[in-house]
Design brief:
This protein is α/β, with parallel strands linked by helices and 554 residues long. It has a domain of 240 residues: Rossmann fold, CATH 3.40.50.1100. 43% of the residues lie in helices and 15% in strands. A 6-stranded mixed sheet has the order 7-8-20-13-14-19, with helices on both faces. Helix 2 packs across helix 3, helix 12 packs across helix 13 and helix 15 crosses helix 17. Bound molecules: pyridoxal-5'-phosphate. The site of pyridoxal-5'-phosphate (PLP) has 17 residues, from helix 10. Pyridoxal-5'-phosphate binds next to helix 10. Its EC number is 4.2.3.1. One of its GO terms (molecular function) is pyridoxal phosphate binding. Keywords: Amino-acid biosynthesis, Lyase, Pyridoxal phosphate, Threonine biosynthesis. Catalyzes the gamma-elimination of phosphate from L-phosphohomoserine and the beta-addition of water to produce L-threonine. It holds the Pfam family PALP.
């Protein structure tokens, strides 16, 4: 199979056997292999890794009837040299990653209403979309570590200690991705008593020896600070190899590109009279750290016919403000959150400005993965000067570094050049959805079609509805739109019950609760209480890794 590698639209005629290399968005780190970027996560210069060239999926149309795992292999293998992971091994990693999903199609598409379709991404082990990426990432980690450790039987083994903080949503997906994996331990810190009961149970009932739940006396910010302190600590770094599984890991984005293609092909099968191969489709994506929707951008750049990617934010709306103003700022100077703004919705705001909403997995101040899109925008802008590719890349890295430095030191940057903003708007639209609108959407969709949305998915559906309305007014006809459903409603029972409690005949237990959640509260738990003190946590990490080694006999 030959696939031209496209560097921003210009085919340079390489083939798929050419080694795929990665560079940092801040320009100071390049030439890395896939394995290096997966194990490192964050680049040495503080940037995020992106492929040096986005491969084009030249024969994507011939993939239309493939099952999910075969499609995943075709897409993912374009980004990994077979010399790094032989095809048979990659196939095996992919097959094992998606065998844990309850739905045969892995990510099924359902028609919600008219031309709005829902891509259900919550059929993995923890009932949230992050499973799609983390099941794959866990197996990749294990594959690389086992390979590094060939011939080593004792303490000389390369052992990864993954440390992360969670407010509840991502912790369980990371734990399920890494449970039972060889040569990797996972420590997940959560604020004691401050995550929802279901989320707490999902995490602490995993009893594998390599899974360590730490309940911190404090809040989520304290947990994050402890993790940061550990990563910055020379002492633990001299004895343990710390790893992260947060959404900046390139492998997570890569795994997520697959379901954009898969959804497109599902739509072809489901709407044969109104949707043909080559027709453009829209996607609406409930967004926080911009990882999910960025995968859609990569799918588009690889050749999938995407009309627009609609960013759906909650009241933490930095992305929506960027698309409206060209300014990327932590503290809003535009919109309902701006000083003097009209909105009084009772939503609790943290000291740093993050609001606590009904869709907590999207409660962010800045979107870490947006940096990757910024690089491509800066690169495109630099390319218009007509210099060589090396110069363009250098320019892009410098531009991104300067933007991100302003974000850190001045709280924001922009407005960006008009051409940059226009280029962004060519592929993206944005919508901001309030908590009240989220509840209204859950309610109205339930009333109209009987489907129960989780609050994150509801943010996406509301954005999709607005997009369709606007398209109808402006273009006279709306295209099909696929709204990504990122969590099962049972994970966010509070918001769902709040929205539907007054609906006649609605019964959460019967309508929503999956059998896997029943009796979870009675299962055995394993969790250690720790003080809000990073040195105490460091001691617990050391001890528990040590005990784990004993279990494995080294
Ligand atoms: C993480 C998450 C999101 C946001 O995805 P990003 O990649 O951070 O934009 C949306 N919904 C749910 C349920 C999530 O867990």
């Amino acid at each position: 199979m030959s696939n031209g590698v496209v560097a921003n639209g210009a085919s340079v005629g390489q083939t798929h056997t050419t080694s795929q290399r990665y560079l940092s968005t801040r320009g100071e780190d390049s030439g890395l292999s896939f394995e290096e970027v997966v194990l490192k996560g964050l680049a040495t210069d503080g940037g995020l890794y992106i492929p040096e060239a986005i491969p084009s999926a030249d024969n994507w149309e011939s993939w239309k009837d493939l099952p999910f795992t075969d499609l995943a292999f075709n897409i993912i293998s374009l980004f990994i040299s077979p010399s790094e992971i032989p095809s048979e091994d990659l196939k095996d990693i992919i097959n094992r990653s998606y065998a844990t999903f309850r739905a045969e199609e892995v990510t099924p598409l359902v028609n919600l209403q008219g031309d709005i379709h829902l891509l259900e991404l919550f059929h993995g082990p923890t009932f949230a979309f992050k499973d799609v990426a983390l099941q794959f990432l866990g197996n990749l980690f294990e594959y690389f570590l086992v390979r590094k450790n060939k011939g080593r039987t004792g303490r000389d083994r390369y052992h990864l200690t993954v440390v992360g903080a969670t407010s509840g949503d991502t912790g369980s997906a990371a734990i399920y991705g890494l449970r039972g994996k060889k040569d990797v331990s996972v420590f997940m810190l959560h604020p004691k008593g401050r995550v929802s009961p279901v989320q707490e149970q999902q995490m602490t009932t995993v009893l594998d020896a390599n899974v360590h739940n730490l309940a911190v006396t404090g809040n989520f910010d304290n947990c994050q600070d402890i993790v940061k302190a550990l990563f910055a600590d020379p002492e633990i770094n001299s004895t343990h190899k710390l790893g992260a599984v947060n959404s900046i890991n390139w492998a997570r984005i890569l795994a997520q590109t697959v379901y954009y293609f898969h959804a497109y092909f599902s739509l072809l099968r489901q709407q044969p009279s109104t949707f043909k191969l080559g027709d453009k489709v829209r996607f609406a994506v409930p967004s926080g750290n911009f990882g999910d929707i960025l995968a859609g951008y990569f799918a588009f750049r690889m050749g999938l016919p995407v009309d627009k990617l609609v960013i759906a934010t909650n009241e933490n709306d930095i992305l929506d403000r960027f698309f409206k103003t060209g300014r990327y700022e932590k503290k809003p100077t535009y919109g309902p959150n701006a000083e003097g703004g009209l909105e009084q919705d009772g939503v609790k705001a943290h000291e740093d400005g993050v609001k606590e909403t009904l869709s907590p997995a999207m409660d962010i101040l800045v979107s870490s993965n947006f940096e990757r899109l910024l690089w491509f925008l800066a690169y495109q802008f630099a390319s218009s000067a007509g210099m060589d590719d090396e110069w363009n890349k250098k320019q892009a890295g410098q531009e991104v570094s300067s933007w991100l430095s302003d974000l850190k030191n001045k709280g924001g940057f922009g407005p960006v050049y008009k051409d940059v903003l226009e280029a962004a708007r060519k592929n993206f639209e944005s919508e901001r959805v309030s908590d009240q609108e989220t509840l209204d959407t859950i309610k109205s969709i339930y009333k109209e079609v009987g489907y129960v949305l989780d609050p994150h998915s509801a943010v996406g559906v509301e954005a999709a509805r607005r997009t369709q309305k606007r398209a109808l007014a402006e273009e006279g006809a709306a295209k099909h739109i696929i709204s990504l459903s990122t969590a099962h409603p049972a994970k966010f029972a509070g918001a769902v019950e709040l929205a539907l409690e007054e609906e006649p005949g609605f019964n959460f237990q019967e309508k929503v609760l999956p059998p896997e959640f029943i009796g979870l509260d009675k299962k055995e738990k394993r969790v250690s209480d720790v003080a809000n003190d990073w040195k105490a946590v460091r001691e617990v990490v050391r001890q528990q890794v040590e005990e784990e080694f004993k279990v494995f006999g080294y």
